[in-house]
């Protein structure tokens, strides 16, 4: 087996977090700067989707950005132990997860899990958003385990 | 659609380790493979009148001029990467079936130059698939999701969670394939692989370790497709195109970078609808397949394709392979007797087409006795992916 690793490093590399927003994704990233997590939903039928020019269910281009609680559950994840580019070498290991967002059925976000031990990682674990201000313009949502006591 | 086309020629360069072809050009490798395929068919280069390609295609103008074509009648490519491999041969068949062209070449050349791992990286990557950063990649890259291996690791992790699939199941794919490669001269990796060495290898993107990844290799493979009628006059037993499909369900879409496909699709290879179309068109099913050439860029995707094509039930891919279902001397349909992308060489899926042709001609290195039907798949990937069902005249 590979060397046991208790805790994974938080992943935050500034030069990977340069954004290239378009008119459809800009509201998401504007909201993150204010530490608000929002989900793109169809203005006609309400279906959540990744931001983009048309609803895949009804074809409407109307969009409502729904405020989300910032909570969710881990749908799947990987512990990255190999640096595919030099920039991430100092960050290993890190966790990439697929997060099922509470209150936005069918919408999932790719995000890093912070503050978590490898042995505790599991699909279905409750998590909540944590704001990573990369720069004054860019804030990336990360997730941390949700303390069940709170 | 009535299929009336056959593969009549197959050719390749030798397979090389990453970096070993650096003094040559992609076009140089491509031409060597195409020339070998045309020679194998007993045709002339000038007979070629069409290209059905994938992975972005090549400079058709340069190809046509370099090869000395009399008249180019068809040129098209399925987009995507290895997902289009099997379907590009199907596309060649469609060009021939429709009468648009008569001798159509499908070919791929791979030179790694830089590490494939840099696939989606905006700043550090300049590999063959280096992605240009976009509004869409803003939802993956800032989390360090930079390579296909990391995406497939998350599909694998969920498959383990839902079905109880284990690392030993993944290992069985790598070990079975390696055992096949040991008798194949063209295979780059022929050392025995044990479960112990599998488990001791470097973890890359948990749960995927070194041996769950395909090789990084270089080389080119080409096949020639023509009409059944003309095929009967040529050198080899024709290998008929029975059916082919490319595409997939829209919701799979950008599956591997956005991961928003429906939960029941998440634990698949994205090939379910492609498989249904293939079986519907051919009137056959998995039980009719004598040898399966499944695109093996990552071991878990072999398990999921076995499930999607109906060689076993959903979630049963792991036990199927671990119980010897894919072994050449096993109790199921042999999988990748050439060693696949994992042990022979990774030439973006065309080695699988080559092996299918050799199996159906009856001259494969690890010949499956009496093989008459071969399934070939393109790599599970963002759309379009693809497949191909080949058979011999009965
Ligand atoms: Zn809608």
From TrEMBL, chain B:
Pfam families: Thiolase_C_1. SUPFAM superfamilies: Thiolase-like (SSF53901). CDD domains: SCP-x_thiolase. One of its GO terms (molecular function) is acyltransferase activity, transferring groups other than amino-acyl groups. It comes from the Bacteria. Residues 265-378 form the Thiolase C-terminal domain. InterPro entries: Thiolase, Thiolase-like, Thiolase_C_2. PANTHER family: ACETYL-COA C-ACETYLTRANSFERASE, NON-SPECIFIC LIPID-TRANSFER PROTEIN-LIKE 2. This is Thiolase. It comes from Streptomyces cadmiisoli.
